[in-house]
Amino acid sequence: MKKKILCLILILSMCIFSLTGCYDAKGIENLSYAIAIGLDKGENNILKLSIQFATPSAISGDSEGSSQSDSTTITSIECSSISSGINLINSYISKQVNLAHCKVIVISEELAYDGVSEYIYTLVDNVQIRPNCNVIVSRCDAINFLENAKPTLEKLTARYYEAALRSSEYTGYTSDIQLNDFYSALKSSTAQPLAILAGVNTEETHLTDTDTNKFNIDSIYKANETPIQDKTSLECMGLAVFSYDKLVGELDAIESLCYAIVSNKLQNGMITIPNPNSDNNSIDIYLSPQKNTKIKVETINNTPYINIDVYLDGYIGSSDTNSDHSSTDTLEIISKSVDKYLEAQISSFLYKTSKDFNCDIVGFGNYAINDYLTWDEWISSDWLSNYKDSFFKVNISTDIQSGELFSKM
Fold first, then answer.
1. Which of 41, 91, 241, 377 is most exposed by smallest CB count within 10 Å?
2. CA 221: distance to chain centroid?
3. Which stretch of 196-210, 237-251, 329-343 has the lowest confidence by average pLDDT?
4. 296 and 226 in one domain?
């Protein structure tokens, strides 16, 4: 009988403790969730911090009856650091700032030229920030970028950021650069950082004239330059190149595609080349990787010699009444034209990043390091300084297939 009583008391005690809650637990009603962080140079202080918050109705999914602009709100403050800025915002708003659902970190171009290591280290050390948060360099002020995040095809701004950045999967005109990627390259001795290049579409870009060859014009744009006319103002196109923690240059759409090809990050993309079988006409080729790009690096007297073998599948995406893409000979001619075009574009991209920027954004140093026996030898070689003297040999092999429905009949 005593054993039964003791067992009953034990069970009741366990039930009582399981029903108690933490007195200091914070629920959703006590937190203000940030979906984007903007960093600009301050006028009266070092930094201008802008945080874009999701409104309570957007968090709960109750967006009916409210405009898209009501789904977020932006709070800005000039401060000496990110942490102090967040602390000041906490003293102003009615809820505590929470960064666990932050989608993007937007850094203005002006601030990026001065250096961003302090801000990147601060964000990496913050336990709330997820490592897959995207890093963006904006060609306009970061706060202007956030204010223009007004999606038309998505209900929530947070989802809009995700969808907009996903375009790299099917265009290759930018890359999915995350906070952990930027931080790793910032600390690396074998590569240097990249960020997504973005901007705000304006009326001034819609009628921009250019003397560029008409076959290449669609792939030379960067964010803030495209002639797209739409209610959606934000655009992500191109890449921002860093030397250590300072912005040193930008890549346009075709150069970003070349980066994706060489670094094995290409999923799908498209190029437009002059049609070798029809004068004054162009031909669109959809590209996908056939197998991984092969890279070999040899260093002779501190001069890197880099050999790159690229293997792609190509699918013809445009045609005209005078073109017959069912012929094997025709496909072979187009294949050689694609190879020649990509060889020139990739070589130009590589020499631009090495000679003009002196930045190994592909990470060729990861291949060169194998030739050194010790870590001290590798560090003393000063790879990132010698990269500007590199020589490249690019070999392209593209297997072109026709998109004509009747070619198989």
1. 91
2. 16
3. 196-210
4. no
Task: Summarize pLDDT for 345-380 with one digit per residue, the tens.
Answer: 999 999 999 999 999 999 999 999 998 999 999 999
Q: Are residues 224 and 351 in the same domain?
A: no
In this structure, are 193 and 91 located in the same domain? Answer: yes
CATH number, domain containing residue 333: 3.30.300.210
Per-residue pLDDT at 40: 96
Q: What is the pLDDT of residues 382-396, one digit of tens each?
A: 999 889 999 999 999
**Contacts for 135 with CB less than 8 Å, ≥ 6 apart:** 104, 105, 107, 120, 177, 178, 179, 181, 182, 195, 196
Instruction: Point out the least confidently predicted range of 4-18, 224-238, 292-306.
Output: 4-18
User: Where in the sequence is the domain holding 381, given as residue range(s)?
Assistant: 283-409
Task: Decide which of 201, 227, 251 is a domain's last residue.
Answer: 251
**Domain identity same for 233 and 113:** yes
217 lies in the same domain as 290 = no
- The three-state DSSP-derived secondary structure of the chain is CHHHHHHHHHHHHHHHHHCCCCCCCCCHHHEEEEEEEEEEECCCCCEEEEEEEECHHHHHCCCCCCCHHHHEEEEEEEECCHHHHHHHHHHHCCCEEECCCCCEEEEEHHHHHHCCHHHHHHHHHCCCCCCCCEEEEECCCHHHHHHCCCCCCCCCHHHHHHHHHHHHHCCCCCCCCEHHHHHHHHHCCCCCCEEEEEEECCHHHCCCCCCCCCCCHHHCCCCCCCCCCCCCCEEEEEEEEEECCEEEEEECHHHHHHHHHHCCCCCCEEEEEECCCCCCCEEEEEEEEEEEEEEEEEEECCEEEEEEEEEEEEEECCCCCCCCCCCHHHHHHHHHHHHHHHHHHHHHHHHHHHHHCCCCCCCCHHHHHHHCCCHHHHHHHCHHHHHHHCEEEEEEEEEEECCCHHHHC
